[in-house]
Design a protein that fits this description.
By secondary structure, this protein is of the alpha+beta class. It has helices at about 15-20, 40-50, 170-180, 200-210, 215, 220-225, 235-255, 365, 370-390, 405-420; strands at about 55-60, 65-75, 75-80, 90, 105-110, 115, 120, 130, 150-155, 155-160, 185-195, 280-285, 315-320, 320-325, 330-340, 345-355. The protein is globular. The protein binds FE2/S2 (inorganic) cluster and fe (ii) ion (FE2). Fe (ii) ion binds near residues 213 and 378. Fe (ii) ion (FE2) binds near residues 207, 218 and 378.
């Protein structure tokens, strides 16, 4: 007797979610199970990670046809590759013969993708072109590698596992004018650092969404930036300084054709009510700083179209897995990928202009420390919090309305997605 399984209709409410939310109070932290429970983790994967747009990497990492890198998330593995026509493709890393993984290297160059099992061979666009030993009448056109939705914006590559991905155009429309002068398409990767952080991905985001913790935890960051000041601790003199910095730079940027969208405080993000998962802005640095470096000086040649170093910092962020801070001379991208309820894989890239030569135009000992220190300080904070929230003694606590409004917005965005 055989049984068939009809495709299950998508559930509109998550079974058991109500019990997890029984003690949730708006404006307070989530209960500990949100950071430890495998059932919640599965919901996070299904409702957020497999529905949203995920930052994968940079166009400049795959400059030539056949260049690729692999992104692994949960049970999925995707090859991001440049095809023979120069287009960026995202293809499931699963052979159409008997399902072997095709690429087991994290990155490389493959003019043809050859399965290591029986050598079925594919073009970088996913076309099957050879399958020795198979019957003559096998219709190769039926065995393309399965595609994954992919989009590009200003040198950044995004992919989505969703059957009907969210519209990407609104993010592109907002980001392009801001990001174009940075020239990420004409960048090169100076350094990559990979971390396994023993914390749930939501704790990493919550930490990213406030600078309440910055004064004591980020001694380097606060010297360069204004955004650790909030409405409750900003003096009139400081407000004047921030306004002056902003007004001066905005008129300068406008004259140079750089989109003048400036914010001096912590950028409001995300917008849970309007479901906004992306944002970008340009922010003045503190007087005397032209780059997010240890002494505020530029440490590499100007990137992109910047006419001079005084361009503040470009900041971009998208849920669930990306943020970037870019100065006149370098950009730093951060990508999160969930590894389990209590672990997150984090990659940090440092990018410089493609013509910059290490040792001649920049030195890693000057380029890396600012964001290496700031990032690692944050990972330590997240791991410490993970240890605490999994204790039987953890109880939800209240957010500051002046300093943690973005953490509250993140939690509201998250819960809305989970309940969708
Ligand atoms: S599984 Fe790939 S060629 Fe057989
Ligand atoms: Fe931080």
């Amino acid at each position: 007797m055989s049984r068939t399984h009809d495709a299950a209709p998508r559930q509109t409410s998550s079974p058991g979610l109500e019990s997890f939310l029984a003690d949730y109070r708006p404006g307070w932290t989530l209960s500990g199970r949100f950071f430890t429970d495998p059932a919640i983790y599965q919901l996070d994967l299904d409702r957020i990670w497999k529905q949203g747009w995920l930052f994968a990497g940079h166009i400049c990492e795959i400059p030539k046809a056949g260049d690729y890198f692999v992104l692994n998330m949960d049970k999925e593995s995707v090859i991001v590759i440049r095809d023979d026509e120069g287009r960026v493709r995202a293809l499931h890393n699963v052979c159409r013969h008997r399902g072997s993984l095709l690429c087991d290297q994290p990155e490389g160059h493959a003019p043809r993708l050859v399965c290591p099992y029986h050598q079925w061979t594919y073009r970088p666009n996913g076309d099957l072109i050879a399958c020795r030993g198979m019957q003559e009448d096998l219709d190769k056109s039926q065995f393309h590698l399965l595609p994954v939705a992919v989009e590009e914006v200003s040198g950044l590559i995004y992919l989505s596992f969703a059957e009907s991905p969210l519209p990407f155009a609104p993010a592109r429309d907002q980001w392009e004018p801001l990001a174009r002068p940075q020239g990420f398409e004409r960048a090169r990767v100076a350094k990559v650092a990979d971390y396994v952080v023993r914390a749930n991905w939501k704790l990493v985001w919550e930490n990213n969404r406030e600078c309440y913790h910055c004064n004591l935890n980020h001694p380097q960051y606060i010297k360069a930036n204004f955004d650790h000041y909030n409405a409750d601790d900003t003096t009139p003199q400081l407000r004047d300084r921030m306004t002056t910095a902003s007004v001066e730079l905005e008129s300068k940027w406008a004259a140079a054709g750089i989109a003048p969208r400036s914010e001096t405080g912590m950028t409001p993000f995300p917008d849970a009510d309007r479901n906004i998962w992306y944002s970008a802005n340009r922010t003045p640095l503190v007087e005397g700083y032209v780059s997010e470096t240890m002494d505020g000086r530029a440490v590499a040649p100007l990137m992109g179209d910047y006419p001079d170093p005084d361009v503040g910092t470009l900041r971009m962020r998208s849920l669930p897995n990306f943020w970037n801070h870019s100065s006149c001379d370098h950009g730093v991208s951060t990508r999160l990928l969930p590894l389990g309820p209590e672990q997150t894989a984090i990659r940090v890239w440092w990018l410089v202009a493609d013509h910059a030569v290490e040792g001649r135009d920049y030195d890693l000992s000057k380029l890396l420390p600012f964001w290496q220190l700031t990032s690692e300080q944050d990972w330590e904070i997240c791991e410490r919090q993970q240890r605490g929230v999994q204790s039987s003694a953890y109880r939800p606590g209240p957010y500051s309305t002046t300093k943690e409004y973005n953490v509250d917005a993140f939690v509201r965005w998250y819960l809305k997605k989970l309940k969708a």
